[in-house]
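Hey,
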Amino acid sequence: MVHLSILDLVPILRGGTVREALERSLDLAQHVERFGYRRFWVAEHHNMTGIASAATSVVIGHLAGGTRTIRVGAGGIMLPNHSPLVIAEQFGTLEALHPGRIDLGLGRAPGTDQRALRALRRDPAAAEDFPRDVQELQVLLGPVRPGQPVQAVPGAGCAVPIWILGSSTFGAQLAAALGLPYAFASHFAPRDLMPALEAYRKQFTRSKQLAAPYAMVGVNVFAAETDAEARRLFTSAQQQFTDLVRGDPGPLRPPIEDIDKYWLPHEKAQASKMLDFALVGSRETVRAGLERVVRTTRADELMLVSAIHDHAARIRSYEIAMEAASSSRVLADAPPATERR
């Protein structure tokens, strides 16, 4: 069976507050837990006025504390921004508080712009150390070795599952070499999806954490009772990506009736390219789209992203997507996944 999970960017709405965004995120996590989603991830972004998850481990603690069974984690922590020891301690603490429910996805991008990168005191060359930092983090989260001079307390021996995130073949090759599950960011950078999945599966080396390749694919989903209503909801994401193209990201905008009045032709081309992996429509439209994605990618898991302005409509979108998946023989009959924990 292909599992469904969620990446929530904890969107701040225009005219809204961070507190409201965090409250909505927890409410969403509680709903999708009941719907049957496998995991709920949030991501590290800095200097983004439309995203409230910069203090990612704190947000994860908030979400895990308000839910009971769904896995909660980072999709991801931008490891070059941090010391591996600090991340081991943070996620060791989360695992101690919420045993068996914490995931740690790691990326090597800064998750911000150049000015904020400097404010983070981050060396731009730190990304080159990403593979070594991942391995250091693995050691810190693993069993304490005889004579080990530095230990993560909490953290040592907690075995929080580590994922590698990416939007290119670099992350795929690293995940394969280390025998880790791999999540591809096709919800905003779909271009290299298929080459990355091919490299990951072809080069995968078995590890203590994972016996066989396990790939997650990001998909934008905007589901509603009708195709027309779903297309209207989708205009919030289309505006959001247009703002990114313009270099002016901000809080999530409400939907509009005619997106062509908002973007220019070249902006439409760029934004639409980033949103190429988007399923927009009614239950049947979304079901067919999910089946197409699974057939094409052979994904073990799909991570859905829905930048929908209205909270009730966003919850309903995820409910419809789960209903669509549950009625699909393609998703139900997929080979069993091999992910540990």
